[in-house]
Write a structure and sequence with these properties.
CATH topology of the largest domain in chain A: Aldehyde Oxidoreductase, domain 4
Shape of chain A: globular
Largest interface: A-B, 66 and 66 residues
GO molecular function, one term (chains A, B): iron ion binding
Radius of gyration of chain A: 28 Å
Structural class of chain A: alpha+beta
Number of helices of chain A: 21
Number of domains of chain A: 3
Low-confidence stretches of chain A: 804-810
Organism (chains A, B): Reticulibacter mediterranei
Largest sheet of chain A: 7 strands, mixed
Keywords (chains A, B): Molybdenum, Oxidoreductase
Oligomer: homodimer
Protein name (chains A, B): Dehydrogenase/oxidase
Helix content of chain A: 25-40%
CATH class of the largest domain in chain A: Alpha Beta
């Protein structure tokens, strides 16, 4: 493979446009005659709907349509269950508009379309919904209590799913293990909080009989397929475009959010374009959330700190519905073993309904929970045996010669959880150098003398990435010499316009800036899954590579004909196609594309060049026969990974806790990351940077709080803390590359990595900082208030230091 | 091949829509904010432009843009020469707007865009163009006169092209032939006169950076490629759609008519949609025309009536420009030999510029001229030797065992003129029966006794069809069970939505009504040439067949997986895919399409069926691997014929001439047609019907008349006669089928056939009716007025009958 651009820190193709304010987000679309929608949402976490009176709203001037469940006809179907699973015995999905009962604060009840958003919102206030409030399941404790009230009347015990998996013989190991400990660990709800909330613009084109939807989504192709089925339209008469998307983080994978059906429904009904833009308040109460779990974990280890077995039983909060199946708890279960040789493992989870916003994957998707659990275990072993925390990890690592390593579980994609490659000790060794790990105890002790509480913590993770089923790509050289590449995956900041361009540029001998990549437009490329599960770079990138390689081969065959040379003697470089050692026998790639069109049309400079070389044939003729891939320098490529890859990484931080306020500041943060071969190290570092920032939010700041009525108590940025640049430390990133043997480019996937280990290392570092207090961190996010409260509960820290309180392990 | 539908007279898929008025022609498009254009055209056939003052037009309220040549920037380039030829030594093409000189009445000078067509036309009247009239070349005689004025100052003798071809040794044969005769034959200009004139709607979409043009054209893909080059846009950012087109007949193949550049130019400039619709007056003076030739033909034959040699030297009127090269006269030269064994042939033509509308192919495209010449020769031989006219033809036919027959000339596509198959005598035998030929002399004699002048005439032709370079097609099965097929060719009444559907339906075991065919939309299929040269059915039809066959194979492979059966045991019939002899192992074709989507989305009935058969996989997975053609039941096919096919046919008619008025009425009309295998005999008959009607116009009614100043004298339907239903007789059509060995389906092409021999048989029949007068027909169209004048010139017909005037052959 030519690798001039692959692996280089190429500047981003997207930046000139975005930095000049030329981004095109859904809300930037302003179509002639466009109407605007607003949603009336349930103020109750659980209530019966007795009656809806929309008559006053209908009379408001400027109101075009008021939809309740009764108006939806055959579209009033529960959304599809995206990923069924045999353990999900009681799946429930949402109606586009609630009919008889609302099940969370924010559930959509009425959809209003008017000439402006102002009028639409005014109309909402004129709608009279008669609710009868019902008892609420506001958390996992209530959900699992005996004889509790039910989120769905027909789902006994609120149990959506239950799944147990066993590896080896944990019961036997526990019975004879030298040390057995157990702990309850809790993860509270958080949310993705993309800068751009959700949004939909739908346009029914009566001439084309074509429905176009611009949606801030991660999965336009599946949405296209679904909308076609729902509205009885041919798939190619529905176009779904994900334009620029201001962050997705999983919360925008969904199909279907109600508004993604209601907005096109309204456009079809009215024959006019309709826009709905989610405001931040709506985002807090209607965009899917994640994270809520409670783990009861038991672990066995020997005197050397070798982990012998784990028994992890956890509850998973799915909110009011299971739109995305049980992917998140499955990932938690499969991710828990991490980089460690865990031969005996019992995993059991129960998925419970609660009267809260439904759960679907959010960046990390169950992994931060798993890593939090396993890294807590590692720390506990170290604490128990008074070993260095990193030494305990080293003693448990899977070794480089043990790959492929079969964890023994069925992964989220239904395939085996088999690690393809890795070198965990190498990563840890790098990190120790970056953190000056060996000198830290001295620094810590010195600081403590000055009344400063410094701690160091490390979190190691293995992340399943690059799952199937497949992606595709189309690559086309145009007469202007530029290459237009398209794929079904979307982009929400992942720099696909750059990294895919690098991959294509290497094949076709051009610069990445001359490759124009289109993502997430079902009209540009109409096959694919979407951008999630850290898969786009690997799966769509491999498809890009395969498509571009086909175009390269077509180009060489055609050039061989044109120049009367052997295909093997044709070179592609610097935008030119030429005969090796005879550079005067040369055309630009664009001119070769003109030659590849059986009815070519040369113009201006290209026409003169072809004429001068006597290559502007006087008569049309087939350029490339069908058996060589048809006309034009274009080709499709599809890539379907045999199973997911497994990236890994280790983060470490030194932080300082202010014991009087509970505030924590980072003094140093370092990460070593292994996602196989790097397409663009600068881009990967950007991904890690963003992930760590989001991880710091999830470790310390961000926690959604609900009261006993299921009312969200901090549903605004006044109350829900997301870290700003001021809270994020300088980040030192380094890489190791253990190429994946699964994909043609050896890459894995880097999208979610940054966020995964942060809560784990944060807990470890805070415990380390406050070690004299014996404080134990058993929850994420920790939150400054919570840490303050915990500090109040322990004895005066000063006294604790002097008494050197021992860990209170059971 | 399965042939349930192939060959059957399937009802047209297009009819329910068109008969209900749901057609969508360019002028039906009404976009929000659309502006309207009108063109100021030259009132002179030749003049210098001294000055253009548009200031008054610009101040008219509602005018948005006034364009002269000076405003076009780098778009002010002569249109491309579509088909260069080495004999075309002085090609000239037109600027979008005339700059220094106008060269025909109707040439575009100023383009005005306003809020309505009314305002735009008012603005035209405010524009002051100062012309200096120049001497005019109004016909071939003037064009070829020594020291005449020049249409293009730098083209000496007005000679655009000159080409001579020789087969065998005609000089030698002429020197020793028993009989040599010569004659001058003239063909006057006519025009296609489609019911729908030309039209363009252009929309520049600022969000998509996409230019969409709806054009009433026969070649949207080449126009797309050209507009992309002209406006420096990527090809995939220009979409050209030929929606419903109300007749093309060749006159809509062009690229570029000025308005096809100016309308998108205006839309790009203004950022608004712009519509230009040609009115009938404009169509008469700015849509390309054809037919004008003068032949001096010399022919040698023996005593048995066997044609020994032909020497044909002709002038071809190309009008003011050569946008389409010299295709028309080349076709004339190649078509002249017809079904006859012509071993010695000298053909020479000179293409001359005149100050008239440019010439490009019009249905028949040079062939009616050739057939007129050759069939006049056959009649003259019969007259000279007092042989039956058909017997002379029979004595000269190429025999069925002589195929492939090499005519010895280079055809319009640059390939050999090689007839692939035919059975000319069989066609003539059928026609004789249909006309009751053998009993006609008795009827004719009886009628003559009653003062009625009946004549019989026959015209035989061979028509080159199905030229390359290629066409392609895409076939896609959708979950609704319908199949969506698309191709780059356009349709203007050829029933492609039906015949392509038949071809696809046979492969996929469904009904033709469940195949939705899209033609002429560069976004639906972006490769191809267009619909002309009687090629779409064969070339695009073969591509359809190949694409559908691929989908059939993909379906069988997938079904074999799904049902765990051998691919060879899978059947496709009645919309179902099932295992042979196990019909319960069955899915609909639509359900199989859902299975072929790696991220399938089943809904409603389909979901229930798949679930019931345990085929609604719980997890997504690749359906068909890339090496089996990628996901989905879809495939592309491309077909490139090795060279053109040659259809043939013979028409005959019995007509009656009213000697007092010169009016002619048809008593009987019969045609035997051989276009290889018939996809749909009803559709082929419809094509023949329309062609004959148009041929009758071209034989008798339609003639464009210009005065010495190059002013058209009959540029309206008040003066230019096109036949109505009243003038068209009942038509009896029969077929013979000599399958083409060149294409996978054995079809040839039928689009132009009907029109080709009509003028020839008309001349023959009129001469026969008026045989006693010795009248000789040497021109087409004859026109009622002209026949009346000719009848005045001969002696009183009554007297002529009594004197039995002999033919005045030289």
């Amino acid at each position: 493979m030519t690798t001039r651009w692959f692996g280089a820190p190429v500047q981003r193709n997207e930046d000139p446009r975005l930095l000049r304010g030329q981004g095109m987000y859904v809300d930037d679309i302003d179509l002639p005659g466009m109407l605007h929608a607003a949603v009336l949402r349930s103020p109750y976490a659980r209530a019966s709907i007795k009656h809806i009176d929309v008559s006053a709203a209908l009379t408001l001037s400027g109101v075009h349509l008021v939809l309740t469940a009764a108006d939806l006809g055959d579209v009033l179907e529960p959304s599809p269950l995206l990923i069924p699973h045999q353990a999900l015995t009681q799946p429930r999905t949402q109606l586009p508009l609630a009919r008889d009962e609302v099940r969370y604060v924010g559930e959509a009840v009425v959809f209003v379309v008017a000439e402006s958003r102002y009028i639409a919102e005014d109309a909402l206030e004129l709608i009279d919904v008669e609710y009868e409030p019902l008892p609420v399941v506001h958390n996992l404790e209530v959900a699992s209590a005996p004889d509790t009230c039910l989120v769905h009347a027909d789902v006994e015990g609120n149990i959506a799913a239950h799944l147990a998996q066993v590896v080896g013989n944990p019961d036997e190991v526990f019975a004879s293990a030298p040390h057995v400990q157990r702990e309850r660990l809790t993860m509270e709800r958080a949310a993705a909080m993309p800068m751009e909330c959700r949004g939909v613009v739908a346009r029914w084109d009566v001439y084309e009989k074509m429905l176009t939807c611009w949606i801030s989504t991660q999965a336009p192709i599946p949405i296209r397929n679904g909308l076609a089925a729902i509205f009885h339209l041919p798939e190619h008469k529905v176009r779904v475009v994900a334009p620029d998307v201001g962050g997705g983080f999983g919360t925008k994978i969904m199909l279907f959010y109600p508004e993604e059906i209601l907005t096109p429904f309204a456009s079809l009904r009215l024959g006019k374009p309709v826009k709905w833009i989610e405001d931040r308040r709506e985002n807090f109460i209607s965009a899917n959330q994640e994270r809520g779990q409670v783990h009861d974990v038991e672990y066995a280890f020997d005197d050397q700190g070798v982990l012998l077995a784990v028994r992890d039983i956890f509850l998973h909060d799915t909110g009011a519905y299971t739109p995305y199946g049980i992917i998140v708890p499955i990932i938690t279960a499969c991710s828990l073993p991490g980089p460690y040789r865990l031969r005996h493992y019992y995993s059991e989870f129960t998925v419970l309904y609660t009267n809260k916003v439904p759960v679907s994957p959010y960046r990390g998707a169950g992994r931060p929970h798993a890593v939090f659990v396993m890294e807590r275990i590692m720390d506990r072993i170290a604490q128990k045996l008074a070993l260095d925390r990193l030494e305990v990890r080293s003693r448990n690592f899977i070794q480089p010669d043990e790959f492929p390593w079969d964890v023994g579980l069925t992964y989220q994609d239904g395939g085996p959880t088999t690690y393809d490659s890795g070198n965990y000790q190498a990563g840890l060794d790098k990190l120790k150098v970056m953190l000056d790990y060996d000198t830290f105890p001295t620094k810590q002790a010195e600081a403590r003398k000055q009344g400063r509480y410094l701690g160091i913590g490390v979190g190691y993770y293995v992340e399943g990435t690059a799952i199937g089923p497949y992606e595709g790509a189309h690559v086309r050289v145009e007469p202007d010499g530029r290459v237009y590449a398209s794929t079904g995956v979307t982009t929400q900041g992942q720099s696909h316009q750059t990294v895919f361009a690098q991959i294509v540029a290497d094949q076709l001998g051009i610069k990445p800036e001359d490759v124009i990549v289109t993502t997430g437009d079902s009209q540009a490329f109409n096959w694919g899954a979407g951008t999630f599960a850290s898969r786009a770079g690997t799966v769509a990138g491999s498809a890009m590579h395969l498509a571009a390689a086909k175009v390269r081969e077509k180009t060489k065959l055609l050039a061989a004909d044109v120049f009367e040379a052997a295909p093997a003697d044709i070179e592609l470089a610097d935008g030119k196609v030429y005969v090796k050692d005879a550079p005067h026998r040369s055309l630009t790639l664009g001119q070769m594309a003109i030659k590849a069109n059986p009815l070519r049309y040369a113009y201006g400079e290209n026409a003169r060049k072809l004429a001068a070389m006597n290559l502007a044939d006087a008569r049309p003729g087939p350029a490339l026969p069908a058996e060589r891939g048809g006309p034009g320098l274009e080709a499709e490529g599809f890539y379907s990974p045999p199973h997911g890859s497994f990236a890994s990484g280790v983060h470490g931080a030194i932080l300082e806790v202010d014991p009087t306020t509970g505030m924590v500041s980072f003094l140093k943060y370092a990460a070593v990351h292994d996602c196989g071969r790097l397409i663009n190290p600068m881009v990967v570092e950007g991904q890690i940077h963003g992930g760590i920032a989001q991880g710091i939010g999830g470790a310390f700041f961000e926690r959604l709080v609900f009261d006993e009525e299921g009312q969200p108590l901090n549903a605004s940025f006044m109350d829900y803390l997301i870290p700003t640049a001021a809270e994020i430390p300088a980040l030192a990133i380094d890489h190791i590359e253990t190429p994946s043997p699964l994909s043609p480019l050896g890459v894995k996937g880097a999208g979610e990595a940054g966020v995964i280990p942060v809560a784990a290392l944060f807990a470890s570092a805070v415990e380390d900082a406050l070690a004299p207090s014996g404080l134990r961190i058993r929850e994420m996010p920790l939150h400054p208030c919570k840490l303050y409260e915990m500090l109040q509960e322990v004895q005066s820290l000063e006294r604790a230091v002097s008494q050197q309180i021992q860990p209170d392990d059971k």
